[in-house]
Design a protein that fits this description.
Blueprint (H helix, E strand, L loop, with lengths): L1 E9 L5 E9 L7 H26 L11 H4 L8
Antiparallel strand pairs: 1-2
Length: 80
């Protein structure tokens, strides 16, 4: 099984920044559920760092400090 982790940040002026990665999961391994949680968590953290770096590069966010993902991605709405 292959899972894609996709992080997208969109600015009000319709500029979009995207970070994507894929994770291959061996479902024959009985430990795959725990491994999957760890792998998705790690990839999401790395993706958030890359996304932050891209946004800073585009000068969408001033500064060089850590920006929480929630600060750049709007909250999910019902039905989304």
């Amino acid at each position: 099984m292959v899972i894609q982790v996709l992080l997208v940040a969109e600015s009000p002026d319709a500029k979009t920044t995207t970070v994507s990665t894929t994770i291959e999961v061996n479902t024959a391994d009985p430990r795959w559920p725990a491994w999957l949680v760890d792998a998705v968590t790690f990839q999401a953290q790395e993706g958030a760092r890359k996304l932050r770096d891209q946004i800073i590069e585009q000068q969408a966010i001033a500064g060089d400090r850590f920006v929480p993902l929630a600060a750049v991605v709007p909250a999910a709405e019902v039905g989304r």
